[in-house]
């Protein structure tokens, strides 16, 4: 069996007296989409922030490609091939697609002591990468604000892939999207996975998870309730695990199975 | 070829979403207006042009700093007090303490840029709005300026800088005039009027290009290039557009913001030094209200008060509009208090227009 791209062992994170994560283990393999499910407040955000170098774990170990590691900053995590796409913080709407795409890693030309952004290269790479993700931009100078929510997520994903991400963490990429945009983003996830990147897909929507996931881990009140492979678990069971069992089952009865 | 639901954008619309557009229209309107009402008053004669050119250049110098800082998402209300402070520091050191003028100028730059860094550091570390932090410095610096000047010289106006600056190399860089030969040549060709009487008979009425204007042009060109062409410029936009999103992709937002506070302080000190060299004196009340005038130039130039969007060229045009109107009303013989009425009016108009343009860019409705 090959080594996981990233492996989190018994991660705990305390904020003062609050135990946000109480021993979470999680890993993702090459070319796999591992879904992390959980309701609001389950600790999903804390967990991905730990993975992406924003927080340091209080206890537990992290391994990247089998090597034990600690991240000092988000930049550190990025350099180790771990890219995170945040739900609302992926893009800056007033800036152009190109400027967003290259933000923090602008390609430069220089003449003597003067260095400036190589906009020709930046624009053409942006157009190409977006086209590969199935989005034809009108012009790379258009502001990100003119794109739909799904397209913004796609720009962020394309950016991460282009800059050599081995692991892509997607924080609720579909939660604010309509039906068509959601299916576009799910298709993008599938495309990214097939290119050998490990995808960590965070969501609270079981149907979206079932559509692309290879494995599923449920997080509830800071703890995992085990990991299941595709085909081993039914959507209803995932739903139950997420909500913590019975209450939802009762609710579901009265709602006629609509959740 | 692309999505069938995207309408082809017209050239007009594309021009509309440039931040400078409002300022360009405003500049044209202002010039046409003053050509009509003050065309024969000498406003567009060489001296007249020099008159409003210098005033506009003064505004432009502080507007460039305020512009980059506003795009990075912060304000500096201490610019005006910083101008008074820097001037008094130069005058005290050179006239009262007998330092060479060049050393006094360097000292003023070091102290003021350090104060700018302190402003930025406090804003970043406390997380308070820069509005409040720099408002505090507006008072602190003004108070210190008056106190220092009275403590050392018992007066709030310190003269004698001109004599001290005689032949000083750095003083020329701020108070000098270049291209004198060129202007003399223009005069000899009859392109420029010459003085007919007095000690300067035969010399052109406009001596040359003041260094103040050179500074303004250089700062505008530098600011525009930095903002639109460089990596650092991209980080300025990013820091003001969404600091958290920028941090997540590795942009050093704190460094960018503190550097911009320092740059604003640098611009204020350039302004102060030019003014001290021109007048030959420093006064504790110099620079009053300049912080707001700088912000108005920037807003007329199309920058958003919330940060993340704007243009240095726009801010420079805002400064030009400001200077032309202020001096133009004087040439036209209008009541000068009307200038403030105009200023308030144009500010409101600019902000309304910017908000509308922002909706167009982001596609909000």
TrEMBL record, chain B:
It comes from the Bacteria. Signal peptide: none annotated. GO terms for molecular function: transmembrane transporter activity. It holds the Pfam family BPD_transp_2. CDD domains: TM_PBP1_transp_AraH_like. GO terms for cellular component: plasma membrane. Its main location: membrane. The chain crosses the membrane at residues 21-39, 51-72, 79-99, 105-124, 131-150, 170-187, 208-227, 258-280, 292-325, 337-357. It is a multi-pass membrane protein. Keywords: Cell inner membrane, Cell membrane, Membrane, Sugar transport, Transmembrane, Transmembrane helix, Transport. Coiled coil: none annotated. It is found in: Cell membrane. Part of the binding-protein-dependent transport system for D-xylose. Probably responsible for the translocation of the substrate across the membrane. This is Xylose transport system permease protein XylH.
